[in-house]
């Protein structure tokens, strides 16, 4: 991953308390997993920023390396990677996500 891409991703992660790298956008997600994470976040009423990885191949590949996570979507809260769809759903179900989002 180029330094420029790394710095760009890092600025998004560190510059936004809740940051979602997804396929599509919150209004029109372009994969079911991205849609599911958006719905969880909307249900919590939390403001979040997003980046559509389909618009930038360098970021699409770079985010996998940045978070050492092979799939998209990827949700970051407070600069930390929570994970993808399954982990977000699990954290939502057990109340962990609500605590993180409230903090």
CATH C-level class is Alpha Beta
Q: Determine Rg (CA atoms, Å).
A: 13 Å
| Separation of the first and last Cα atoms | 32 Å
Percent range of helical residues = 40-55%
Mean pLDDT: 96
Provide the domain count: 1
H/E element sequence: HEHEHEEHH
List the helices and strands and how they pair.
Elements: H1 3-15, E1 18-22, H2 32-44, E2 49-52, H3 57-66, E3 74-77, E4 80-83, H4 85-93, H5 96-102
Parallel strand pairs: 1-2
Antiparallel strand pairs: 1-3, 3-4
Helix pairs in contact: 1-3, 2-4
Give a verbal description of the structure:
This protein has 103 residues and is α+β, with helices and mostly antiparallel strands. It has a single domain (3-102), classed as Glutaredoxin. The chain has 5 helices and 4 strands, in the order H-E-H-E-H-E-E-H-H. It has helices spanning 3-15, 32-44, 57-66, 85-93, 96-102, and strands at residues 18-22, 49-52, 74-77, 80-83. The chain has a 4-stranded mixed beta sheet. Helix 1 (3-15) packs across helix 3 and helix 2 (32-44) runs parallel beside helix 4. The model has no long low-confidence stretch (mean pLDDT 96).
What's the short story on this structure?
The chain has helices at residues 3-15, 32-44, 57-66, 85-93, 96-102; strands at residues 18-22, 49-52, 74-77, 80-83.
Name the descriptors.
103 residues, alpha+beta, Glutaredoxin, 4-stranded mixed beta sheet, 17% strand
